[in-house]
Every structure is written in C-alpha cells, then in structure tokens.
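Board work, copied verbatim: Zinc-dependent alcohol dehydrogenase family protein
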Amino acid sequence: MRALVYHGPGQKAWEEVPKPQIIDDGDAVVRVDAVTICGTDLHILKGDVPAVTDGRILGHEAVGTVETVGSGVRTVEPGDKVLVSCITSCGTCRFCREGRYGQCLGGGGWILGHKIDGTQAEYVRVPFADTSVHPLPEGVPVEDVLMLADILPTGYEVGVLNGRVGPGDVVAVVGAGPIGLSTIMGARLFSPSRIIAVDLADSRLAAAKEFGADVLVNNSREDPAAIVRDLTGGLGADTTVEAVGVPDAFELAVALARPGGRIANIGVHGEPATLHLEEQWIRDVTITTGLVDTFSTPTLLRLLAGRQLDAGRFVTHRFGLDDFPKAYEVFADAAHTGALKVVLTR
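↓ predict structure ↓
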C-alpha cells in the first residue's frame, strides 16, 4: 500500500510500505476512505515531537471501512463505516476508567502517527478497536464526521470545558486556525456574551467571524490587551484559550485573562514559554493544559447528527490520496491559501 512516511524534520514521502496486519485480538484494520492533516503533523515535521521517529507513517484522523478485525473485537465488523479517533483507549486502565483516554496506561493514548503507524495511508491498524472507533451516524457526510476525529473534541474539551466557559462570559481565543475555530464553535454552545478572536492573518479572522466570533483582533497591527480591557471594563477575559502552540501566543493568552480568570492551553509547544509568575501569583488565575481525551466524541456525534454542529464548514480544500505532497503544501501555507482543513479521499 501507499502511505505518507516521516523521515526526520522537514522530510516526508508518499511511498510504498507493507499493508498493516492484525497483531492483537483487539485490533481492526481499517481501509482509509477519508483523511486529513493536523497542525500537530506540521509540528512533527518541524521536529517538535521527537518521539516520532524515522519511518513512521503520519496521521491520526480518518474515516474508513473496517476490513478485518481481531478475534476479541465485539463492537464492529468488516464492512462497518467508522470514525478513527485520534486517541486510542485500552478501556481498562485507571485513566481510561476516569475518561482520561489521552493518558491511557495500557498502550493507548495518542499513538497513531506518533508511536505507531498512523492514518495517512491506504490502510491503518487501530488497536483496541472496541473503544477507539465510532460507527458513523446515518445521513451525515463523511467529511463532517472526519472533523470529529480530533479538532472538534480538542477545542471543546481542552479549550471550552477546561476553560469553564459559561453563559455571559467573555472568551478570548488566541489563534484562529482549525483548533481556535473549533473552540469558537464549541464555546457558542454555552452562550458567552462575547467571543474575541485574535490572529495575525486577516483570512483566519474572517473565518473566525463565520464561526461565531463577535470581535476580531489582528495582533500584527492592534493591541489585543487594550481591546479586551476596553470591552471588559478594564478587567480582562473570563476565559482565554491558547490555540497556536508558540510562546508569544501563550504569554498573550495569560495577559488577556482577568483576575480569577481561566487560561486554557491547547497548542502543541515545541519550545519553552515564559510564565511571569511574579505577576500572576496574586491574580487567582487558573491555567490548564491537556491532550484531548475524546470522551466528548459520542456527544459531538449526536450534535452533528442533530444538525447542531456545522462541521463541514471546516473543509476548504479537497485532494485525492495520491496528492499528499500538494495537500501538505496548501495546508502549511494557510495564511496565503486560506486553508482550514484539507480532506484527502480515495
């Protein structure tokens, strides 16, 4: 089969590799019908995730068709259409029993495209299939479901829920890429009074407005802190969300929060960021971090099936599976291409 293989920082290739096989009785081999690229994949290619080694197939998001299953699989069978979650869950360890699947101790967590071969391929082996894939709801487009493999549960869980967004809150989202937009979409479910989107690119800010942001701030030419203070009587935002993964974005998210506010970090960081504790210790702020657990995926699937989420609006570019090099080029240059999510299909 063909797959996108990582060969060290800045190096990747769409090449021939062995087709995956069942290894454990809980495995499923899924034929990939639709797959996307994540900002985390770009971080990997920058060298920010050293656990990803030469020869690894990238990718952790897909919708596909179950081809074969191990003898222990009970919830899916060959021919089923499924969502392959970015997080794999053993289902039995302490953290999985708490719903913290991202911290799985039993061989799961974020492993696809990280510690084992991932989804940017014609086929993928999914361990713990009973607890790590989700049947597709009837009548929902495949592209829409694909957005629930990672970005929507990530923005919802690590941004909105960790940030404890509530009715009437002022929410500032630093970064209006796919994760920031997912946060905006998820925050809207909790009726905040204002959502402020901060980004360097006007195209991303335009997207943020379409996704529900009320105030747009281009921090290449405006002062986000001054604008947020002006909108909040000098206090700052109730919740700020860092959705970029660079030091400046984290430090800005902290600066935008009010005393007693919440700062939810989502971004994947590859270098240190400064926390000015000499300024923050007295302000009663709460800072949360987290890897998505995907415990919310069943809820989001129901909202999708009930037309409460318009996930398809994330998809801006479409390619065939053999077009991975071009798809990465378009996705990585989002400031110029306007790419949010790219989808590659058979």
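The mean pLDDT is 96.
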